[in-house]
Design brief:
The chain is α/β, with parallel strands linked by helices. About 50% of the residues lie in helices and about 15% in strands. The strands form two sheets. The protein has a six-stranded mixed beta sheet with strand order 1-2-3-5-7-10, sandwiched between helices. Strands 4-6-8-9 form a four-stranded mixed beta sheet. Strand 1 and strand 2 form a beta hairpin. The N and C termini lie far apart (about 75 Å). The model has no long low-confidence stretch (mean pLDDT about 95).
Length: about 270
């Protein structure tokens, strides 16, 4: 695993990860995927990391998607090798990002094609540069999106829009991606990481266990029936009761709004 392909910078609770293959439009080769998986595991275990920003090196690309040279080598070894080395590895990465219990913000600094778009779909939050574009070009290589794109994209933007992107491979602009719900917002290219960091800081002001409970409730509940989703929500609520986060949060609210507290008469008052 070549660690130079993934850069890390820690800024007071926020870890910025940069895919560092600008000469290859930050294509996701096996080293990059493995480095992301290892680094995310380290960050999950570290209280020092409260939020993650993921971006790409250079001004041209967040990620052009999977490295097809690596895929071709695996395909040459046979179907099982291609599924094991390529598809399962990519799906493991997007599933890890989707289920991560700390906020992951993708800062899309350029084109996000194929696997780059699938990472954007998997992340709970995404901010795009006004130069960013998004596409699902896998059909031109003869296969459907393999890192979860056939499942997550329709859930984000609707079945018909997703099928059009998947079957045509045509790119869409950052503005369109925002309009249809693929990213949260579009900002000027020059302030992309600054805006992503500001969003991260607005989140990490809340207790980490509360943030994790919110992420878990949404992620696990998104793709189940509403009754099961409500049960997941209740489970996360129950888990937070009695914690310092709830005790301190309710106490601080009451202190701030002391003048609005309504006196409820006791039985003694009523007699």
């Amino acid at each position: 695993m070549d660690s130079s392909k993934l850069l890390r910078e820690d800024r007071s609770g926020i870890s910025i990860l940069t895919i560092n293959r600008p000469e290859r439009l930050n294509a996701l080769d096996y080293d990059v995927i493995d480095a992301l998986l290892v680094t995310l595991d380290e960050m999950a275990a570290s209280p020092a990391t409260r939020a993650v920003i993921l971006t790409g090196a250079g001004d041209r690309a967040f990620s052009a998607g999977a490295d097809i040279f690596g895929l071709a080598s695996s395909v040459a070894e046979g179907t099982e090798a291609a599924v094991r080395d390529f598809l399962e590895r990519g799906q493991r990465l997007t599933a890890r990002i989707e289920a991560f219990q700390k906020p992951v913000i993708v800062a899309v600094n350029g084109l996000a094609y194929g696997g780059g778009c699938e990472i954007t779909e998997a992340a709970p939050l995404a901010i795009a540069s006004d130069r960013a574009t998004f596409a699902k070009p896998e059909i031109r290589l003869g296969f459907p999106p393999p890192f979860g794109g056939t499942q997550r994209l329709p859930r984000h933007i609707g079945r018909k829009r997703a099928i059009e992107m998947i079957l045509t491979g045509e790119p869409i602009s950052a503005e369109m991606a925002c309009r249809i719900g693929l990213v949260n917002r579009v900002v000027r290219h020059e302030v992309l990481v600054t805006e992503a960091e500001a969003l991260a800081r607005s989140i990490i002001g809340s207790p980490p266990e509360t943030v994790a409970a919110c992420l878990t409730a949404v992620t696990r509940g998104l793709n189940v029936a509403i009754a099961e989703g409500l049960a997941i929500e209740a489970m996360q609520f129950r888990a937070m009761l009695g914690t310092d986060a709830v005790t301190n949060g309710t106490r601080d609210f009451l202190e701030r709004h002391r003048d609005r507290v309504v006196h409820r008469p006791s039985e003694k008052d009523e007699t």
